[in-house]
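Let us walk through a complete example step by step. Step one is to write down the protein sequence. Step two is to encode the small molecule, S-adenosylmethionine, as a SMILES string so that its atoms and bonds are unambiguous. Step three, shown after the inputs, is the structure prediction itself.
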Amino acid sequence: MKPTSAYSSNYERMSGNCTRIIASQMLQNLSPPITSSSYILDNACGPGIVSEQIKLLHPDAKIMVTDWSPAMIEETKERIEKEGWNNMQTGIEDVRDLKGLKDETFSHVFTNLGMPVPGDDESGVKITSALFRVLKVGGVALVSTWADRVWLNAFYNAARAVRSHEEPLKPMALKPELLRASWLAAQLEEGGFGNNVEVRSCVTYTEAGSLDELVENMMLAKQMFFAGYSDEELERVKPIFRGELLKLRTFEQVDGGVRVGMKAWIGVGWKKGDEKEIPV
Ligand SMILES: C[S@@+](CC[C@H](N)C(=O)[O-])C[C@H]1O[C@@H](n2cnc3c(N)ncnc32)[C@H](O)[C@@H]1O
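Step three: the predicted structure of the complex.
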């Protein structure tokens, strides 16, 4: 994917394609494949990034799109209308219980960067159990989590430079064990998938047409990282943040723009119906 100056919303500008690249990799070598009889859940959907990637490949795919945030569902509804996507339903659901959705309903369930739920470190198994419950036997769950979010250092270092007397805000901090492949594998195993799981790595990027644009896009998250800063402090933050982005080990100039690399895990769990067999 090429860096773009035409992201359509604040979410798109802030994420800079990083979730879209993972979504597109989730769909590669999908087993079982999506067919005309598939019924798909795009869970913790944000503005419908996974659905968008599915519709590019399978325009008539039947998809239920859910998120906890009514604002995200509104954005997704607008996108569905604008794109003229058919066979789509939307709903407000907590990914930890999916209580509005019936057992054994879907052939494919996707949760792209919806795990863990921020502030709930115990949410992993709740989520995978809910995914297992709503999947039909023969279906597959795909779940992604972060392994390495290099760009957070640029925010922390900029905050430290401007307010050297206080610890930077860390609203997106996760315990290191939650960034491991083994953590994702364990959540899928314990959620019901047993031995029918696999975890693979995925490189992704946050991208923009220029460094200045990347700074502007990422600074849309300033309320998270620089809450309570005065306008004068925020003015000082910006050039420091720009310099910190340039220092990141995964920062790159590329054809058409700049990008910062990151790493995610894609976990796959198959519901085969043999999960309760006792191994010998
Ligand atoms: C990082 S975004 C990922 C969005 C999207 N899947 C994508 O590929 O870009 C995380 C999403 O999880 C949603 N979310 C947070 N807590 C949730 C919960 N308890 N249940 C359902 N969705 C939740 C947020 O509203 C947000 O849309």
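Step four is interpretation. The first strand starts at residue 39 and ends at 43.
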